[in-house]
Amino acid sequence: MSEQSAQKHSFQAEVAQLLHLVTHSLYSNPEIFLRELISNASDACDKLRFEGINHPEYYENDPDLHVRISLDKENKTITISDNGIGLSEQEAIDNLGTIAKSGTKDFMSKLTGDQKADAQLIGQFGVGFYSGFIVAEKITVESRRAGLSENEGVRWISGGTGDFEVEQISKASRGTDIILHLREDALEYLEAWKVKQIVNKYSDHISLPIEMQKEVWQEEEAAEGEEAKGGKMVKTDEWEVINSASALWTRSKSEITEEQYIEFYKNLTHNFEAPLTWAHNHVEGNTEYTQLLYIPAKAPSDIFTREAKAGIKLYVKRVFIMDDADNLIPNYLRFVQGVVDSADLPLNVSRELLQESRDVRTIREGNTRRILNLLDGLAKSEDEKDQEKFKQFYSEFGSVIKEGLGEDFSNRERILKLLRYATSSNDDVVTSFADYKARMKEGQKAIYYVTADSLSAAKNSPQLELFKKKGIEVILMSDRVDEWAMNFVQEFDGTPLQNVSKGAVDLGDLQDAEEKKALEAAAEHFKPVVDKLSDTLKDKTKEVRVTTRLVDSPACLVTPEGDLSPQLIRMLKQAGQTVPDSKPILEINPEHPLVKKLEGTQQFDDLANVIFDQAVIAEGGLPEDPAEYVKRINNLLLK
Question: What Rg value do the Cα atoms of the chain yield, rounded?
Answer without folding.
Answer: 33
